[in-house]
Amino acid sequence: MTGNDQETSDTLCLNATNHWLILNPTSGTADHRDTIRQRGAQHGYTIRETKHEGHAVSLTKEAVGNGVEVLAVAGGDGTLHEVVQGLAEVDALDSVTLGVLPVGTKNIFATNIGITNLEQGFEVLKTGKRRSIDIGFADDEPFVLSCIAGLTAEASLATSSELKERFGSLGFIIAGIREATEFESLHLNLTAVLDEKEATWSGDALCVLIGNTRRFAKEGGQANVEDGLFEVVIIEQMPPTDIAAEAMSHRLLGEDTEHVHHLKAHQVEVRRLDREPIRFSIDGEQQTHDELLLRTHPQVLTVCIGSTYTPAPRE
Ligand SMILES: Nc1ncnc2c1ncn2[C@@H]1O[C@H](COP(=O)(O)OP(=O)(O)OP(=O)(O)O)[C@@H](O)[C@H]1O
Residue limits of the DAGKc domain (predicted)? Predict the structure, then answer.
């Protein structure tokens, strides 16, 4: 099914009978607990609060065990990651409709599906349309946003608004790397598969950015979340003198440059070529691996979307 084919199957999120709401009271500025409890109760949700890290995984499994049809997630991207993990663990990715109430710090996923605030999140849960979107898997772990190899902290991608202003989305990553003090390059092999064709790349990289709902190339923002493909950017190790020029080229042209490659793939394998394991950030969660196999599962998760959401933004 293509993104457009789904238009005919859009269904309002209004009719489901069994609604649960998973609330992370510590997300973002941590001042939303009472509001969510009150609004959630008004809308007839069964509310479950997370008490510790990882708790949203087991609460989600409990919700599935209780036959939940609509699951609202009041939190940020980390909470959402845990909920999707819970759904995957009980093989229920396609049996629940997910809604997002963005009360986290960055809320990248909510923004990418057209939900910008709490009020609108509740409204979309009640009257919004739903779409089936792709989920990535890193070995057996599902992820929604992205898997990044080689950056020491996800934060370095999100904070520097001045660099972003100057260089654009990918450019500011490149420029950000230049400014990072503790940065080690990666000696790796990457194999990408698209339409049964394989492409490989080996060498020293500054980082590899693999987006599911998140786009790093060009102006960044939302990727096509319904095409069953990752958007992959390989940023090669390069002389410091080239970095600013490459960053600016991405700002001005949005195109591949000598040291930056952009491709789409439904499967990506990343393997280390030296002794150091590779550091990955999977939806912001830090892990190390010698190798990692990333695959997309196309259109397996049904989510309530905001009216500004479009499956294929600025292809
Ligand atoms: N009661 C709790 N106490 C402490 N940590 C918790 C609790 N409940 C959940 N968590 C953890 O809080 C982490 C961060 O939550 P979340 O992602 O929702 O907020 P955020 O980091 O502010 O937002 P974003 O990820 O959008 O920037 C999650 O990884 C989760 O494991």
Answer: 14-142
